[in-house]
Protein backbone atom coordinates (compact mmCIF):
# COMPACT_ATOMS: atom_id res chain seq x y z
CA UNK A 1 0.00 0.00 0.00
CA UNK A 2 1.35 3.34 -0.88
CA UNK A 3 -0.15 6.75 -0.46
CA UNK A 4 1.28 9.89 -1.87
CA UNK A 5 0.71 13.31 -0.50
CA UNK A 6 1.67 15.68 -3.24
CA UNK A 7 2.58 18.79 -1.41
CA UNK A 8 4.64 20.89 -3.77
CA UNK A 9 6.06 22.90 -0.99
CA UNK A 10 8.57 25.47 -1.90
CA UNK A 11 11.30 26.10 0.61
CA UNK A 12 14.18 28.47 0.58
CA UNK A 13 16.81 26.11 1.93
CA UNK A 14 19.96 27.24 0.34
CA UNK A 15 22.59 24.77 -0.78
CA UNK A 16 25.10 27.49 0.10
CA UNK A 17 24.59 26.57 3.69
CA UNK A 18 26.08 23.22 2.93
CA UNK A 19 29.63 22.50 3.77
CA UNK A 20 30.51 21.01 0.47
CA UNK A 21 34.17 21.62 1.00
CA UNK A 22 34.25 19.36 4.03
CA UNK A 23 32.88 16.38 2.26
CA UNK A 24 35.01 17.05 -0.77
CA UNK A 25 38.21 17.26 1.20
CA UNK A 26 37.38 14.14 3.05
CA UNK A 27 36.67 12.54 -0.29
CA UNK A 28 33.01 12.01 0.27
CA UNK A 29 30.84 12.80 -2.65
CA UNK A 30 28.81 15.74 -1.68
CA UNK A 31 25.34 14.85 -2.65
CA UNK A 32 22.26 17.02 -2.31
CA UNK A 33 20.42 14.04 -0.89
CA UNK A 34 22.73 14.11 2.11
CA UNK A 35 21.81 17.67 2.65
CA UNK A 36 18.19 17.00 2.02
CA UNK A 37 18.35 14.61 4.91
CA UNK A 38 19.72 17.35 7.02
CA UNK A 39 16.98 19.61 5.95
CA UNK A 40 14.05 17.35 6.34
CA UNK A 41 15.43 15.93 9.54
CA UNK A 42 14.14 12.45 9.05
CA UNK A 43 13.36 10.67 12.25
CA UNK A 44 15.82 8.17 13.51
CA UNK A 45 14.08 5.19 12.02
CA UNK A 46 14.19 6.30 8.47
CA UNK A 47 16.66 4.56 6.27
CA UNK A 48 16.98 6.15 2.92
CA UNK A 49 17.54 4.80 -0.48
CA UNK A 50 18.26 7.04 -3.32
CA UNK A 51 17.23 7.14 -6.89
CA UNK A 52 18.27 9.95 -9.07
CA UNK A 53 17.87 10.59 -12.74
CA UNK A 54 17.74 13.64 -14.86
CA UNK A 55 14.00 13.62 -15.13
CA UNK A 56 12.90 12.38 -11.72
CA UNK A 57 13.15 14.02 -8.36
CA UNK A 58 15.38 12.17 -5.91
CA UNK A 59 13.56 10.03 -3.42
CA UNK A 60 14.51 9.13 0.10
CA UNK A 61 12.79 5.97 1.15
CA UNK A 62 12.51 4.81 4.70
CA UNK A 63 12.13 1.14 5.42
CA UNK A 64 12.41 1.15 9.15
CA UNK A 65 15.81 -0.38 9.24
CA UNK A 66 15.21 -3.25 6.87
CA UNK A 67 17.55 -2.04 4.21
CA UNK A 68 18.09 0.82 1.85
CA UNK A 69 21.25 2.22 0.49
CA UNK A 70 21.84 5.21 2.66
CA UNK A 71 21.37 5.31 6.33
CA UNK A 72 19.57 8.43 7.36
CA UNK A 73 20.60 7.95 10.93
CA UNK A 74 21.27 11.29 12.55
CA UNK A 75 24.99 10.89 12.17
CA UNK A 76 24.52 11.58 8.50
CA UNK A 77 23.60 15.16 9.07
CA UNK A 78 26.91 16.82 9.65
CA UNK A 79 29.15 17.57 6.77
CA UNK A 80 31.94 15.43 8.21
CA UNK A 81 29.69 12.49 7.54
CA UNK A 82 29.69 10.38 4.48
CA UNK A 83 29.73 8.78 2.16
CA UNK A 84 26.45 9.73 0.56
CA UNK A 85 26.20 8.19 -2.82
CA UNK A 86 23.57 7.29 -5.31
CA UNK A 87 25.37 4.78 -7.44
CA UNK A 88 28.24 2.80 -5.98
CA UNK A 89 29.70 2.11 -9.37
CA UNK A 90 29.83 5.80 -10.20
CA UNK A 91 31.88 7.11 -7.33
CA UNK A 92 35.43 7.21 -6.22
CA UNK A 93 36.08 6.47 -2.59
CA UNK A 94 39.30 6.25 -0.66
CA UNK A 95 40.94 2.94 0.13
CA UNK A 96 39.61 2.69 3.67
CA UNK A 97 36.02 3.54 2.74
CA UNK A 98 36.21 1.01 -0.08
CA UNK A 99 37.18 -1.71 2.40
CA UNK A 100 34.41 -0.64 4.77
CA UNK A 101 31.86 -0.62 1.96
CA UNK A 102 32.88 -4.11 0.93
CA UNK A 103 32.71 -5.35 4.49
CA UNK A 104 29.58 -3.63 5.69
CA UNK A 105 27.68 -2.18 2.76
CA UNK A 106 26.49 1.39 2.58
CA UNK A 107 24.30 1.26 5.61
CA UNK A 108 27.09 0.43 7.98
CA UNK A 109 29.97 2.60 6.87
CA UNK A 110 31.33 4.72 9.67
CA UNK A 111 29.90 8.23 9.85
CA UNK A 112 32.05 9.55 12.67
CA UNK A 113 35.27 10.98 11.30
CA UNK A 114 38.52 10.45 13.17
CA UNK A 115 41.26 13.04 13.60
CA UNK A 116 44.76 12.18 14.85
CA UNK A 117 47.27 14.71 16.11
CA UNK A 118 50.62 13.86 14.57
CA UNK A 119 53.65 14.05 16.83
CA UNK A 120 56.90 12.19 17.43
CA UNK A 121 55.05 8.89 17.90
CA UNK A 122 53.34 9.01 14.51
CA UNK A 123 55.29 11.25 12.11
CA UNK A 124 57.01 8.48 10.14
CA UNK A 125 55.63 7.24 6.81
CA UNK A 126 54.92 3.76 8.20
CA UNK A 127 53.18 5.10 11.29
CA UNK A 128 51.11 7.50 9.20
CA UNK A 129 50.06 4.68 6.93
CA UNK A 130 49.08 2.56 9.91
CA UNK A 131 46.82 5.40 11.09
CA UNK A 132 45.33 5.81 7.60
CA UNK A 133 44.56 2.09 7.50
CA UNK A 134 43.10 2.40 10.99
CA UNK A 135 40.59 5.01 9.84
CA UNK A 136 42.30 8.38 10.32
CA UNK A 137 40.35 10.88 8.21
CA UNK A 138 42.28 13.98 9.21
CA UNK A 139 45.89 14.42 10.34
CA UNK A 140 46.21 17.37 12.71
CA UNK A 141 49.45 19.27 13.10
CA UNK A 142 49.73 21.50 16.14
CA UNK A 143 51.88 24.58 15.51
CA UNK A 144 52.52 24.85 19.26
CA UNK A 145 55.10 22.14 18.77
CA UNK A 146 57.88 21.41 16.32
CA UNK A 147 59.28 23.51 13.50
CA UNK A 148 57.64 24.41 10.22
CA UNK A 149 60.09 22.10 8.46
CA UNK A 150 58.99 19.25 10.70
CA UNK A 151 55.31 19.90 9.91
CA UNK A 152 56.06 20.27 6.22
CA UNK A 153 57.58 16.78 6.19
CA UNK A 154 54.46 15.38 7.82
CA UNK A 155 52.22 17.12 5.27
CA UNK A 156 54.30 15.78 2.40
CA UNK A 157 54.20 12.25 3.79
CA UNK A 158 50.44 12.35 4.13
CA UNK A 159 50.02 13.71 0.61
CA UNK A 160 52.30 11.00 -0.75
CA UNK A 161 50.30 8.36 1.06
CA UNK A 162 47.10 9.70 -0.47
CA UNK A 163 48.54 9.79 -3.95
CA UNK A 164 50.42 6.50 -3.90
CA UNK A 165 48.05 4.36 -1.90
CA UNK A 166 44.62 5.87 -2.44
CA UNK A 167 43.89 7.25 1.00
CA UNK A 168 42.00 10.49 1.56
CA UNK A 169 43.56 11.89 4.68
CA UNK A 170 42.99 15.64 5.04
CA UNK A 171 45.37 17.99 6.87
CA UNK A 172 44.32 20.26 9.70
CA UNK A 173 46.70 22.92 10.96
CA UNK A 174 46.06 24.11 14.51
CA UNK A 175 47.44 27.52 15.51
CA UNK A 176 49.41 28.14 18.65
CA UNK A 177 47.40 31.19 19.74
CA UNK A 178 48.76 33.79 22.08
CA UNK A 179 47.59 32.46 25.41
CA UNK A 180 50.19 31.92 28.09
CA UNK A 181 52.10 28.67 27.85
CA UNK A 182 55.27 27.04 29.06
CA UNK A 183 58.42 26.74 26.98
CA UNK A 184 59.71 23.51 25.51
CA UNK A 185 61.38 22.07 28.66
CA UNK A 186 64.84 22.46 27.11
CA UNK A 187 64.32 19.45 24.85
CA UNK A 188 62.98 17.02 27.48
CA UNK A 189 59.78 15.22 26.43
CA UNK A 190 58.26 15.70 29.88
CA UNK A 191 59.15 16.55 33.48
CA UNK A 192 57.60 15.28 36.69
CA UNK A 193 56.57 17.81 39.33
CA UNK A 194 56.24 16.26 42.79
CA UNK A 195 54.09 17.44 45.65
CA UNK A 196 55.72 20.25 47.65
CA UNK A 197 58.57 20.90 45.20
CA UNK A 198 59.43 24.53 44.46
CA UNK A 199 59.69 25.38 40.75
CA UNK A 200 60.68 28.65 39.09
CA UNK A 201 58.47 30.02 36.32
CA UNK A 202 60.38 32.70 34.47
CA UNK A 203 60.21 34.91 31.40
CA UNK A 204 64.05 35.06 31.28
CA UNK A 205 65.84 33.43 28.36
CA UNK A 206 67.91 30.47 29.56
CA UNK A 207 70.59 28.45 27.86
CA UNK A 208 69.77 24.80 27.28
CA UNK A 209 69.62 22.67 29.36
CA UNK A 210 67.39 24.66 31.69
CA UNK A 211 68.39 24.93 35.34
CA UNK A 212 66.73 22.25 37.46
CA UNK A 213 63.01 22.79 38.19
CA UNK A 214 62.78 25.81 35.92
CA UNK A 215 60.06 26.53 33.39
CA UNK A 216 60.06 29.21 30.72
CA UNK A 217 56.87 31.21 30.30
CA UNK A 218 55.85 32.65 26.92
CA UNK A 219 54.17 35.83 28.15
CA UNK A 220 56.37 38.85 28.98
CA UNK A 221 53.97 40.32 31.51
CA UNK A 222 53.65 37.09 33.49
CA UNK A 223 55.75 38.04 36.52
CA UNK A 224 53.99 41.40 36.81
CA UNK A 225 50.48 39.99 36.47
CA UNK A 226 50.64 37.11 38.98
CA UNK A 227 50.41 37.71 42.72
CA UNK A 228 51.68 35.73 45.68
CA UNK A 229 48.91 33.31 46.65
CA UNK A 230 47.64 32.83 43.06
CA UNK A 231 47.06 29.29 41.88
CA UNK A 232 48.87 28.29 38.68
CA UNK A 233 47.20 25.59 36.58
CA UNK A 234 49.20 23.66 34.01
CA UNK A 235 47.17 22.16 31.18
CA UNK A 236 43.86 22.99 32.81
CA UNK A 237 44.80 21.55 36.18
CA UNK A 238 46.77 18.43 35.27
CA UNK A 239 49.43 19.91 37.58
CA UNK A 240 48.89 22.75 40.08
CA UNK A 241 51.21 25.20 41.77
CA UNK A 242 50.81 28.04 44.25
CA UNK A 243 52.78 31.26 43.83
CA UNK A 244 54.95 31.74 46.93
CA UNK A 245 57.42 34.47 45.92
CA UNK A 246 58.22 36.90 43.12
CA UNK A 247 61.85 37.83 42.44
CA UNK A 248 62.07 40.13 39.40
CA UNK A 249 61.24 38.04 36.31
CA UNK A 250 61.21 34.81 38.36
CA UNK A 251 58.09 33.47 40.03
CA UNK A 252 58.64 30.77 42.68
CA UNK A 253 55.78 28.29 42.91
CA UNK A 254 55.14 25.30 45.16
CA UNK A 255 53.60 22.20 43.57
CA UNK A 256 50.25 21.45 45.21
CA UNK A 257 48.96 18.80 42.75
CA UNK A 258 51.78 16.69 41.31
CA UNK A 259 51.85 15.46 37.73
CA UNK A 260 53.59 15.35 34.40
CA UNK A 261 54.62 18.64 32.78
CA UNK A 262 54.53 18.46 28.99
CA UNK A 263 56.34 20.87 26.66
CA UNK A 264 54.41 24.04 25.81
CA UNK A 265 51.51 23.20 28.09
CA UNK A 266 49.03 26.00 28.65
CA UNK A 267 49.14 28.03 31.85
CA UNK A 268 46.28 29.80 33.57
CA UNK A 269 46.32 31.54 36.90
CA UNK A 270 43.51 31.82 39.37
CA UNK A 271 42.87 34.21 42.26
CA UNK A 272 40.19 33.63 44.90
CA UNK A 273 38.65 30.88 42.78
CA UNK A 274 38.39 32.96 39.59
CA UNK A 275 40.42 32.92 36.41
CA UNK A 276 42.72 35.97 36.28
CA UNK A 277 42.39 37.76 32.99
CA UNK A 278 44.37 40.96 33.06
CA UNK A 279 46.59 42.18 30.30
CA UNK A 280 46.85 38.68 28.89
CA UNK A 281 43.17 38.95 27.93
CA UNK A 282 44.22 41.70 25.51
CA UNK A 283 46.55 39.43 23.56
CA UNK A 284 45.40 39.01 19.95
CA UNK A 285 43.70 35.71 19.03
CA UNK A 286 46.07 35.33 16.08
CA UNK A 287 49.62 36.27 17.07
CA UNK A 288 52.30 37.40 14.63
CA UNK A 289 53.78 33.90 14.79
CA UNK A 290 50.32 32.47 14.03
CA UNK A 291 50.08 34.65 10.90
CA UNK A 292 53.38 33.22 9.67
CA UNK A 293 52.08 29.72 10.40
CA UNK A 294 48.87 30.53 8.53
CA UNK A 295 50.92 31.69 5.51
CA UNK A 296 52.78 28.40 5.75
CA UNK A 297 49.48 26.48 5.90
CA UNK A 298 48.14 28.34 2.87
CA UNK A 299 51.34 27.69 0.93
CA UNK A 300 51.17 23.99 1.83
CA UNK A 301 47.51 23.82 0.85
CA UNK A 302 46.23 22.45 4.15
CA UNK A 303 42.54 21.59 4.19
CA UNK A 304 41.58 23.07 7.55
CA UNK A 305 42.98 25.78 9.77
CA UNK A 306 41.83 25.50 13.39
CA UNK A 307 42.06 28.76 15.32
CA UNK A 308 42.90 28.47 19.00
CA UNK A 309 41.23 30.61 21.68
CA UNK A 310 38.72 32.29 19.39
CA UNK A 311 37.02 35.17 21.19
CA UNK A 312 34.71 36.61 18.56
CA UNK A 313 33.34 36.07 15.07
CA UNK A 314 35.41 38.98 13.75
CA UNK A 315 38.68 37.10 13.85
CA UNK A 316 37.15 34.22 11.88
CA UNK A 317 35.73 36.58 9.26
CA UNK A 318 39.07 38.34 8.98
CA UNK A 319 40.94 35.07 8.54
CA UNK A 320 38.48 33.82 5.97
CA UNK A 321 38.91 36.88 3.82
CA UNK A 322 42.69 36.66 4.29
CA UNK A 323 42.62 33.07 3.04
CA UNK A 324 40.30 33.92 0.18
CA UNK A 325 42.69 36.56 -1.06
CA UNK A 326 45.76 34.33 -0.79
CA UNK A 327 44.89 30.67 -1.13
CA UNK A 328 45.24 29.28 -4.62
CA UNK A 329 41.74 27.87 -4.77
CA UNK A 330 40.50 29.67 -1.68
CA UNK A 331 39.49 26.33 -0.31
CA UNK A 332 40.71 26.15 3.27
CA UNK A 333 38.05 25.69 5.90
CA UNK A 334 38.33 27.58 9.16
CA UNK A 335 37.53 25.73 12.37
CA UNK A 336 36.79 27.77 15.49
CA UNK A 337 38.22 26.17 18.61
CA UNK A 338 35.87 26.70 21.50
CA UNK A 339 38.19 26.73 24.48
CA UNK A 340 37.66 29.98 26.33
CA UNK A 341 35.03 31.84 28.31
CA UNK A 342 34.86 34.47 25.57
CA UNK A 343 34.11 31.88 22.92
CA UNK A 344 31.23 30.55 25.01
CA UNK A 345 29.80 34.04 25.32
CA UNK A 346 29.78 34.59 21.55
CA UNK A 347 29.16 30.99 20.55
CA UNK A 348 26.43 31.32 17.95
CA UNK A 349 28.02 34.13 15.98
CA UNK A 350 31.42 32.43 16.08
CA UNK A 351 30.00 29.15 14.79
CA UNK A 352 27.95 30.96 12.17
CA UNK A 353 31.08 32.68 10.87
CA UNK A 354 33.13 29.45 10.83
CA UNK A 355 33.18 26.38 8.62
CA UNK A 356 33.12 24.15 11.69
CA UNK A 357 33.92 24.12 15.39
CA UNK A 358 35.98 22.12 17.84
CA UNK A 359 35.01 21.47 21.43
CA UNK A 360 38.57 21.85 22.74
CA UNK A 361 37.89 20.42 26.16
CA UNK A 362 41.49 20.61 27.36
CA UNK A 363 41.78 24.36 27.61
CA UNK A 364 38.05 24.84 28.04
CA UNK A 365 38.29 22.84 31.26
CA UNK A 366 40.95 25.27 32.45
CA UNK A 367 38.67 28.25 32.01
CA UNK A 368 35.36 26.96 33.31
CA UNK A 369 34.66 24.51 36.16
CA UNK A 370 35.28 20.94 34.97
CA UNK A 371 31.75 19.87 35.86
CA UNK A 372 30.45 22.44 33.38
CA UNK A 373 32.39 21.01 30.43
CA UNK A 374 29.92 18.19 29.53
CA UNK A 375 26.90 20.50 29.32
CA UNK A 376 28.88 23.04 27.29
CA UNK A 377 29.95 20.22 24.97
CA UNK A 378 26.33 19.26 24.44
CA UNK A 379 25.36 22.89 23.81
CA UNK A 380 28.16 23.45 21.30
CA UNK A 381 27.34 20.23 19.43
CA UNK A 382 23.67 21.15 19.34
CA UNK A 383 24.29 24.67 18.05
CA UNK A 384 26.64 23.35 15.37
CA UNK A 385 24.00 20.91 14.22
CA UNK A 386 21.40 23.62 14.20
CA UNK A 387 23.63 25.90 12.15
CA UNK A 388 24.72 23.02 9.92
CA UNK A 389 28.38 23.21 10.87
CA UNK A 390 30.51 20.12 11.45
CA UNK A 391 31.69 19.73 15.02
CA UNK A 392 34.73 17.98 16.48
CA UNK A 393 34.89 16.73 20.05
CA UNK A 394 38.50 16.84 21.25
CA UNK A 395 40.84 16.13 24.14
CA UNK A 396 41.35 13.39 26.66
CA UNK A 397 39.01 10.99 24.88
CA UNK A 398 41.49 8.21 25.59
CA UNK A 399 44.01 9.92 27.85
CA UNK A 400 44.89 6.73 29.72
CA UNK A 401 45.97 5.15 26.44
CA UNK A 402 48.97 7.48 26.32
CA UNK A 403 50.42 4.96 28.75
CA UNK A 404 48.21 1.88 28.70
CA UNK A 405 47.04 -0.38 25.85
CA UNK A 406 43.40 -0.55 26.97
CA UNK A 407 41.03 2.33 27.67
CA UNK A 408 39.12 2.89 30.87
CA UNK A 409 35.39 2.15 30.87
CA UNK A 410 34.78 5.84 31.53
CA UNK A 411 36.71 6.81 28.40
CA UNK A 412 34.65 4.42 26.30
CA UNK A 413 31.50 5.95 27.79
CA UNK A 414 32.78 9.44 26.96
CA UNK A 415 33.38 8.54 23.31
CA UNK A 416 29.97 6.87 23.14
CA UNK A 417 28.32 10.00 24.47
CA UNK A 418 30.04 12.20 21.88
CA UNK A 419 28.88 9.88 19.08
CA UNK A 420 25.41 9.72 20.60
CA UNK A 421 25.30 13.52 20.59
CA UNK A 422 26.09 13.19 16.91
CA UNK A 423 29.45 14.89 16.90
CA UNK A 424 30.83 14.73 13.37
CA UNK A 425 34.39 13.97 14.35
CA UNK A 426 36.47 12.81 17.30
CA UNK A 427 40.06 13.84 17.84
CA UNK A 428 43.09 12.21 19.44
CA UNK A 429 45.75 14.53 20.91
CA UNK A 430 48.58 13.18 23.07
CA UNK A 431 47.26 9.63 22.49
CA UNK A 432 48.43 9.75 18.88
CA UNK A 433 51.09 12.50 19.09
CA UNK A 434 53.30 11.08 21.82
CA UNK A 435 51.49 8.13 23.35
CA UNK A 436 52.67 4.56 23.40
CA UNK A 437 49.63 3.11 21.64
CA UNK A 438 48.45 5.46 18.86
CA UNK A 439 47.08 2.72 16.62
CA UNK A 440 45.30 0.98 19.46
CA UNK A 441 43.73 4.28 20.55
CA UNK A 442 42.49 4.86 16.99
CA UNK A 443 41.07 1.34 16.89
CA UNK A 444 39.13 2.06 20.07
CA UNK A 445 37.73 5.31 18.63
CA UNK A 446 36.74 3.48 15.48
CA UNK A 447 35.13 0.48 17.07
CA UNK A 448 33.23 2.48 19.67
CA UNK A 449 31.98 4.91 17.00
CA UNK A 450 30.83 2.03 14.81
CA UNK A 451 29.13 0.32 17.71
CA UNK A 452 27.17 3.39 18.78
CA UNK A 453 26.18 4.15 15.21
CA UNK A 454 24.94 0.56 14.85
CA UNK A 455 23.04 0.90 18.08
CA UNK A 456 21.27 3.98 16.76
CA UNK A 457 20.58 2.30 13.48
CA UNK A 458 19.37 -1.07 14.67
CA UNK A 459 18.44 -1.05 18.30
CA UNK A 460 17.09 2.46 18.69
CA UNK A 461 15.52 2.70 15.30
CA UNK A 462 11.95 2.94 16.51
CA UNK A 463 12.78 5.79 18.79
CA UNK A 464 12.12 9.12 17.15
CA UNK A 465 14.55 11.84 18.05
CA UNK A 466 13.54 15.35 18.82
CA UNK A 467 15.75 17.39 16.58
CA UNK A 468 16.11 21.14 16.87
CA UNK A 469 14.26 23.22 14.30
CA UNK A 470 16.46 24.55 11.52
CA UNK A 471 13.95 26.28 9.28
CA UNK A 472 14.85 29.81 8.37
CA UNK A 473 11.46 30.98 7.15
CA UNK A 474 7.78 30.28 7.70
CA UNK A 475 7.50 28.17 4.54
CA UNK A 476 10.59 26.19 5.62
CA UNK A 477 8.90 25.58 8.96
CA UNK A 478 5.85 24.17 7.23
CA UNK A 479 8.01 21.72 5.27
CA UNK A 480 9.90 20.83 8.38
CA UNK A 481 6.76 20.13 10.39
CA UNK A 482 5.25 18.06 7.61
CA UNK A 483 8.40 15.97 7.32
CA UNK A 484 8.60 15.53 11.07
CA UNK A 485 4.99 14.43 11.21
CA UNK A 486 5.40 12.04 8.28
CA UNK A 487 8.48 10.48 9.91
CA UNK A 488 6.65 10.15 13.19
CA UNK A 489 3.71 8.52 11.49
CA UNK A 490 6.02 6.07 9.72
CA UNK A 491 7.66 5.25 13.03
CA UNK A 492 4.40 4.68 14.82
CA UNK A 493 2.96 2.58 12.01
CA UNK A 494 6.26 0.73 11.58
CA UNK A 495 5.99 1.74 7.96
CA UNK A 496 8.03 3.42 5.32
CA UNK A 497 8.16 7.04 4.47
CA UNK A 498 9.46 8.57 1.26
CA UNK A 499 10.25 12.18 0.62
CA UNK A 500 10.44 13.44 -2.94
CA UNK A 501 12.41 16.51 -3.70
CA UNK A 502 12.33 18.79 -6.65
CA UNK A 503 15.35 18.34 -8.84
CA UNK A 504 16.21 21.88 -7.93
CA UNK A 505 16.81 21.38 -4.22
CA UNK A 506 16.04 24.92 -3.32
CA UNK A 507 12.42 24.24 -4.28
CA UNK A 508 12.07 21.79 -1.44
CA UNK A 509 9.77 18.81 -1.12
CA UNK A 510 7.36 17.84 -3.87
CA UNK A 511 5.75 14.79 -2.30
CA UNK A 512 5.77 12.45 0.65
CA UNK A 513 4.65 8.82 0.39
CA UNK A 514 3.78 6.57 3.29
CA UNK A 515 3.61 2.82 2.83
CA UNK A 516 3.47 -0.24 5.03
N1 LIG B 1 54.69 18.19 16.65
C1 LIG B 1 54.90 17.76 17.89
N2 LIG B 1 56.14 17.59 18.36
C2 LIG B 1 56.37 17.17 19.61
N3 LIG B 1 55.40 16.89 20.50
C3 LIG B 1 54.14 17.04 20.11
C4 LIG B 1 53.81 17.49 18.79
N4 LIG B 1 52.48 17.57 18.69
C5 LIG B 1 52.00 17.19 19.89
N5 LIG B 1 52.98 16.85 20.75
C6 LIG B 1 52.86 16.35 22.11
O1 LIG B 1 51.56 15.83 22.32
C7 LIG B 1 50.91 16.49 23.39
C8 LIG B 1 49.45 16.65 23.07
O2 LIG B 1 49.32 17.27 21.82
P1 LIG B 1 48.28 18.39 21.51
O3 LIG B 1 48.52 18.88 20.16
O4 LIG B 1 46.92 17.91 21.77
O5 LIG B 1 48.65 19.51 22.56
P2 LIG B 1 47.74 20.39 23.41
O6 LIG B 1 48.66 21.31 24.08
O7 LIG B 1 46.82 19.54 24.24
O8 LIG B 1 46.80 21.13 22.36
P3 LIG B 1 46.52 22.68 22.24
O9 LIG B 1 47.84 23.34 22.32
O10 LIG B 1 45.93 22.84 20.90
O11 LIG B 1 45.61 23.04 23.34
C9 LIG B 1 51.65 17.80 23.55
O12 LIG B 1 51.60 18.28 24.85
C10 LIG B 1 53.07 17.43 23.16
O13 LIG B 1 53.73 16.86 24.25
C1 LIG C 1 42.50 20.62 21.47
C2 LIG C 1 42.75 21.77 22.32
O1 LIG C 1 43.26 22.76 21.91
C3 LIG C 1 42.30 21.72 23.70
O2 LIG C 1 41.59 20.79 24.07
O3 LIG C 1 42.65 22.63 24.44
K1 LIG D 1 47.12 24.68 19.36
MG1 LIG E 1 43.82 24.13 23.43
UniProtKB/TrEMBL annotation:
This is Pyruvate kinase. Its cofactor is K(+); Mg(2+). Keywords: ATP-binding, Glycolysis, Kinase, Magnesium, Metal-binding, Nucleotide-binding, Pyruvate, Transferase. Coiled coil: none annotated. It comes from Forsythia ovata. It comes from the Eukaryota. Pathway: Carbohydrate degradation; glycolysis; pyruvate from D-glyceraldehyde 3-phosphate: step 5/5. InterPro entries: Pyr_Knase, Pyrv/PenolPyrv_kinase-like_dom, Pyrv_kinase-like_dom_sf, Pyrv_Knase-like_insert_dom_sf, Pyrv_Knase_AS, Pyrv_Knase_brl, Pyrv_Knase_C_sf, Pyrv_Knase_insert_dom_sf. PANTHER family: PYRUVATE KINASE. The keyword Nucleotide-binding applies. Transmembrane segments: none annotated. Its EC number is 2.7.1.40. GO terms for molecular function: ATP binding; kinase activity; magnesium ion binding; potassium ion binding; pyruvate kinase activity. It catalyses: pyruvate + ATP = phosphoenolpyruvate + ADP + H(+). Residues 110-441 form the Pyruvate kinase barrel domain. One of its GO terms (cellular component) is chloroplast stroma. Belongs to the pyruvate kinase family. It is an enzyme of class 2 (transferase).
Amino acid sequence: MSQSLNLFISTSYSPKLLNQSFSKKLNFNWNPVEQLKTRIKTALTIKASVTDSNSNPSVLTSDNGAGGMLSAMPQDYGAFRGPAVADPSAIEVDAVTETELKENGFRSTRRTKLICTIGPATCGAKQLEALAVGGMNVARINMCHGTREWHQEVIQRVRRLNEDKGYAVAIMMDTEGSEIHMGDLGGASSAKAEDGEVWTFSVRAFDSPLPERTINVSYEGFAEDVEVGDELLVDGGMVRFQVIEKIGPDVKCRCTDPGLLLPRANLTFWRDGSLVRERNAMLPTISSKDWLDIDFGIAEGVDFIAISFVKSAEVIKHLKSYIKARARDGDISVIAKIESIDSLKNLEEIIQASDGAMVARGDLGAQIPLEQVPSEQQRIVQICRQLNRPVIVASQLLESMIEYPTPTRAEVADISEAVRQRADALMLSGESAMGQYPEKALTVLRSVSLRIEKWWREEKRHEATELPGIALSFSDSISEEICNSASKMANNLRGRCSFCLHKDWSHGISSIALST
